[in-house]
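tokens incoming
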């Protein structure tokens, strides 16, 4: 049985995130080869800039975690046909499109350790190619012919956009509460995790109980994944992350470690956060001070603990399914997300 291991326990026992993802990789390897071929085929366009820009991100070494979840979920419920390949490819295109849009909205300079597409081709082209990938995603879903899967992923696309707007409204707002922030990441990140997992059961036309369980699994896994991401930006290793730590701080992003440190700090500390985050006046050494304030108030460890609690909910959601290789692999993904360093 897969188990959720706390971050501290994982460090103590010398466990690695990479090892816990291996069962899923082995389970879906053949299907992922077909998905990668379809992704490359659907990124083709007579407009040269479109495949160039799309491949810049598609080929940059992403984990393909979301489409792997779709494949594994479909296998979990006994799906026997081939349409899960198109559904999973559409999931990855939706994810890639949101990354391109994110980088423009956030004015990011790097993505997965490489120069962000917007830094090479500009903001306008990056947004438009993201729109092209969204169009291709929905075209693949139409070809599948399942109105329910189309509904699930169309709704996810709308919710993700809402999350982006919510995040934009909360940008640099140090008074953002933990509940408000969780609502943002529930929309911005967890919605696609939930849709990816639920689609695997929907394509097989499984009962509502199974679809709801996989949706809950994906949603809570997605929240845990994002919370770990938040913590790693202040406490991770830049080489393993593939980006400089402190990007969230320098961009004035409101994340859970910052919210907790702000709430738990004194007036002088809150004045520091107001200057650096709200006013954007960052001086040399401020990131180091920010990370130290978070450590002093246990904000980073508390974020990891929050992630672990959502991981447990994701784990429990899977318990309605009988023990199987697929169930084991999906539960091991929870451990991967909690222990990962990149």
């Amino acid at each position: 049985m897969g188990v959720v291991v706390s971050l501290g326990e994982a460090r103590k026992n010398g466990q690695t995130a990479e090892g816990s993802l291996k069962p899923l990789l082995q389970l879906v390897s053949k299907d992922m080869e077909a998905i990668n071929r379809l992704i490359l085929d659907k990124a083709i366009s007579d407009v040269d800039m479109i495949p160039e820009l799309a491949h810049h991100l598609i080929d940059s070494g992403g984990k393909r975690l979301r489409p792997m979840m779709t494949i594994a979920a479909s296998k979990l419920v006994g799906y026997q046909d081939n349409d899960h390949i198109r559904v999973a490819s559409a999931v990855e295109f939706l994810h890639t499109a949101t990354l391109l849009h994110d980088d423009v909205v956030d004015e990011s300079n790097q993505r997965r350790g490489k120069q962000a597409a917007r830094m090479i081709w500009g903001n306008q082209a990056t947004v438009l190619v993201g729109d092209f990938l969204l169009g291709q995603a929905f075209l693949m879903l139409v070809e599948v012919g399942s109105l329910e899967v189309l509904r699930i992923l169309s709704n996810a696309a709308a919710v993700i956009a809402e999350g982006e707007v919510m995040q934009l409204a909360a940008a640099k707002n140090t008074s953002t509460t933990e509940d408000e922030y969780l609502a943002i990441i529930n929309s911005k990140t967890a919605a696609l995790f939930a849709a990816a997992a639920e689609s695997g059961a929907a394509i097989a036309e499984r009962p509502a109980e199974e679809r709801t369980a996989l949706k809950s699994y994906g949603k809570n896994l997605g929240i845990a994944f994002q919370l770990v991401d938040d913590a790693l930006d202040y406490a991770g290793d830049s080489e393993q992350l593939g980006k400089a730590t402190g990007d969230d701080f320098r961009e004035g992003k409101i994340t859970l470690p910052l919210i907790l440190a702000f709430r738990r700090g004194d007036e002088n500390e809150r004045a520091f956060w107001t200057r650096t985050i709200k006013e954007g006046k960052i001086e040399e050494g401020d990131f180091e001070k920010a990370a130290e304030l978070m450590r002093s108030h246990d904000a980073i460890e508390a974020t990891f603990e929050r992630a672990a609690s959502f991981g447990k909910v994701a784990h429990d959601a899977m318990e309605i399914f009988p023990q199987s290789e697929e169930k084991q692999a999906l539960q091991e993904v929870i451990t991967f997300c909690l222990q990962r360093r990149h």
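note: Confidence is low (pLDDT under 50) at residues 1-19.
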